């Protein structure tokens, strides 16, 4: 391997990462927003390198060839993204207070979640109105996008619209591995779940946890109640710990 090729391979993790649908085997064009960020914030100039992702799991090593209007990169190499887990993990997260959900979205994306769906359980204190929730959802999606770029993901994890607890039962499937991280559970994840399907759904409560009736309803729909240990974790810590443990057990960390 030539010295330049080796340098490109070794330094790739340092290069800025962008997502775009406007990409081919020879060229990639950034969106207007990302082009502005590349030139005005990152101070990129022609000849600089970046990794451009098509959002479908393929990475393209690009060299900036034009900054006139939208940034254009010449594609030097195409390869499969190696950061995506081999399981599709969906996080159902009860809405916490304040800006904790922003932290949860960011860290869930970094840890490997593929989809995040906020919901309202009986013990949720935070209950924004429809207009407020729309603004929050837009921000969560932006955070997911930025986190995906930062940590090298090959897809942009989706953040769904917030739903009521009762709506969860129309969204879950018995074909998935369903795990309820529950403060009253006694079994560890390793003890409770011996085999994982490709699609894994996990559910985590807000600051007050779950009502017994909610936990029972989820168990009736196939969710296995699991403990995260003897220590009481904050609601923003629990999903990070849970996803990390799952990624480790399934060989994705």
Provide a brief overview of the structure.
The protein is an alpha/beta fold and 253 residues long.
Task: Give keywords.
single chain, 253 residues, alpha/beta, seven-stranded parallel β-sheet, 7 helices
Structure, described:
There is one protein chain. The model has no long low-confidence stretch (mean pLDDT 91). α3 (100-111) packs parallel to α4 and α3 (100-111) runs parallel beside α7 (238-249). The protein has 253 residues and is an alpha/beta fold. The strands form two sheets. Strands 6, 7, 8, 9, 10, 11 and 12 form a seven-stranded parallel β-sheet that branches. Strands 1-3-4-5-2 form a five-stranded mixed β-sheet, with no helix packed on it. 31% of the residues lie in helices and 24% in strands. The protein is elongated. It has helices spanning 3-11, 32-41, 100-111, 130-151, 189-192, 212-220, 238-249; strands at 17-19, 27-29, 49-53, 58-66, 72-80, 88-94, 115-120, 158-159, 163-164, 177-181, 199-204, 224-226.
Helical content band: 25-40%
How much strand?
15-25%
Mind summarizing the main beta sheet?
A: 7 strands, parallel
Shape summary? elongated
Stretches where pLDDT falls below 50 for ≥5 residues? none
Distance between the ends: 29 Å
Structural class by helix and strand composition: alpha/beta
Task: Spell the H/E element sequence.
Answer: HEEHEEEEHEHEEEHEHEH
Radius of gyration: 20 Å
